[in-house]
Amino acid sequence: MVDTAVANDSRKYTDIQSLITKVNMDGKVAIVTGGNTGLGFEICKSLASCGAHVILATRNDKRGLESISNFVTAFNKKKLPLHILANNAAVWMVEDQMTEDGFEAQIGTHYFGHAYLTSLLLPALKKSTPSRVVWTTSAAETSGDVDWNNLAGVGYKSDFMTYCTNKLYGLMFARELATRLMDTGVNVYAGQPGMASTDFFNPKKFDILKISAVAQYLAQKVIGLTPAQGAAPVIMCCLMAPDELIDTSEGTSYGPKYYKTWLPRGLPNITNVDILAHQKPENDAANDPEACSRLYDQTLHIIRKRVGEIEAEQKGHKGGVSKKPEE
Q1: Catalytic residue among 111, 116, 163, 169
Q2: How many CA atoms lie within 13 A of 246 on its CB side?
Q3: pTM exceeding 0.70
Q4: 3-state secondary structure of 188
Q5: Is 163 a catalytic residue?
Q6: How far apart are CA 46 and CA 31, in angstroms?
Q7: What are the distances in angstroms from CA 20 to CA 197, 238, 253?
Q8: What gap in Å lies between CA 176 and CA 172, rounded to an integer?
Q9: Of 118, 116, 110, 86, which Cα lies nearest the Cα of 158?
Q10: How do residues 97-150 score in pLDDT, each as one tens digit?
Q11: Is 84 helix (H, G, I), strand (E, B) or coil?
């Protein structure tokens, strides 16, 4: 039996190493997005070391819903179960790019991409219970805002505030997903890494004049957690038994504690204290179940509309493999 204090008392990172050695995942199948680098790579290593069959889902930043549909089609042809879906992939300040589906790149990659992927994989997850979805979130949700008239982020700058909004959307969607999947055997958890020193903030990826991005890069090099430590909350959510974890049906997540400031909302603890802490979000929207439900529904509506457009564009051409998302 795994020590439940790991979840409840925010023990040190070494407990995650102990957890990894105790868990046997032989015969379990996991999909990890963004698993080729950074936190995702650490998640994959940990799952594989426990015996899981790990599938890395990676793609070009600008490729969109069609590539996700193709991936799910290929996965389904393998006739494999699916026990863990780790929605981890994200991009950071990508020169104001848009995905081929018309989403701002950060919002399209981390949010709409994961929402679509999750909806398509729900049948596999439901057939493989007990199973789980684990969403890599961020304390940046504290500064995000819901733009009900432009969830796709059309015309947005790919800046820090857009990143915050994108992470807020992910947490809200995960909360509503957990609510809708309650008592199905599919659990939903969220883990946020705090400030981790990975190449995610590599200044070569963006305009050096984006001062906030450069500042973030320098800060994480000085005080950031290692990639393995940053991935620890997500790894814990992937490995611990459901009765030893708290799902995200109330917006809660695991990761470094927030701290209160004179600002209206909390900020991530830049000292990365209590990296396995469990806490509720600071953003009012993420604490509002009606807002989370509305966001979930509007998101799937936007995806269905775009998938329909893709199918129309492909009519008469080979390769029309797009699928409508499951509710």
Answers
A1: 163
A2: 16
A3: yes
A4: strand
A5: yes
A6: 13
A7: 22, 10, 20
A8: 6
A9: 110
A10: 788 888 988 899 889 999 999 999 999 999 999 999 999 998 888 889 999 999
A11: strand
